[in-house]
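ESCALATION

Customer reports they have been waiting on this structure for their group meeting. Please prioritize. Original submission:
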Amino acid sequence: MESIEQGVLKGGIVGCGGAASIYHMPAFRNLKGIRIVAACDRREQAALETARRFGIPRTYGDISQMLEREKLNFVDICSPPQTHFQVCMEAMEAGLHVLVEKPMAFSVSEADKMVSVSRKNEVKLCVIHNLLFTPVVQKAKHLVDSGAIGDLTGVEVKILSRGDGAISKEEHWCHCLPGGIFGEFAPHALYLASAFLGTINSARAIAMKHSSFPWVIADELKVMLEAENGLGAFTISCNSPRPSLTMDIFGTKRVLHLNNFAMTLIQHESGSYRIPDLLFDELKSGLRLTTGAVSSMLRVASSRRWYEIGHRVLIRKFLESVTGNMDPPVTGEDGRETLRILEDICRQVNIPNSAPGQKE
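Update from on-call: job pushed to the front of the queue and completed.
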C-alpha cells in the first residue's frame, strides 16, 4: 500500500454508475485530505463522464491496470454486486483498504474469504450500511443506549417500494442480487434491526407474489427475528403506491417511530387509555412530526438529501479509520452477518441466493 503523502489519501473508484455519482463522489468531494485519482469501469463512456464531472484525472477499463499504474491507499467499489468479490480480493491482495457497497458479496463463503484476506493483509474492509448513519437512526440509538425508552423489547422495520419501480423492469440489476428484489431491501432491514437487537439468532420468513411479472418469484416478504436483545420483525412490500422506510423501536417507557425518508423521529410516551389523553398524545406527535418535517425541508434546501447523508457520514468514518488505524464503522464481519441471515431467509422462501443469467 502506498504511504499517505502530505496527509492526503488517494483512492480509486470502481464502477461509475448511480451509486458512484449520486452517493460516493459527492461525499468524497466534500471531505478534506482525500483525492480520487482514478475511475474504473468497463464501460469507457461511463468512466469518462464520471471523471469529467468530478475532476478525476485518469480513467481505466480494467481494475488490474488501475492497481498496477496508480499509487493508491484505498479502493471504493460501486460496481455491480456480482463483481464485488473479485474486485475486493484483488484490491486487498494488493494491500489496499476497501470500501464496498452492499451486499459485500453473493454468499457467506465469499464474505468469509474476503474477511480472511483483509485480516491477512492488515487492511480495512468496510461495507456500506448507510442507513445506520442517518440523523434519525443515530438519535434513536442514543435514546436507546441512554435508557430513555426504558428496557428495549422489540424492533420493527417496514420497507415499501412502488410496484412500477425497479421490480417492474426485467433487466434491472436488482433481479440478479442474492434473493432477487429482496436482496436490495432486506440487508437494510437486517442491519437496522441488528443495530438495536444485537446478534440475530434466527429468522422465520414467509413470502408471496402479488405482481404479474414473470421474472419475479416473490414480491412480499415478512420476517420474524429472534435476537440477543429481543424480538424483531420486518416487512418488505414491492407493491406500494408510495415508497417508505419506517422503523418502530419498542421500549417499556417509550416507543420511537422513525421515518428515514422524511428524517423524522416521534417519541410516544406512556399514557392512559382515556380518550383525552390519547388525543393529547396524538397532538404532541403531530407537533413533533411538523417540527421534524420543517427540519427535513431545511436539509433538502441545503442539498443534504436523506439518501446522501448516511453515505457521507459512513465514508468519512471509513477514511478516519484508515488514517487513525481504527476499526471501520461497518466491518466485513458485520456485512457477513447480514448475508448469513439473508441466505437463511432465501432458503426458507425458496428464492435462489443468486439469480441465473446475472446481469452486469
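Sent to customer with the following note: The first strand starts at residue 9 and ends at 14.
Escalation resolved.
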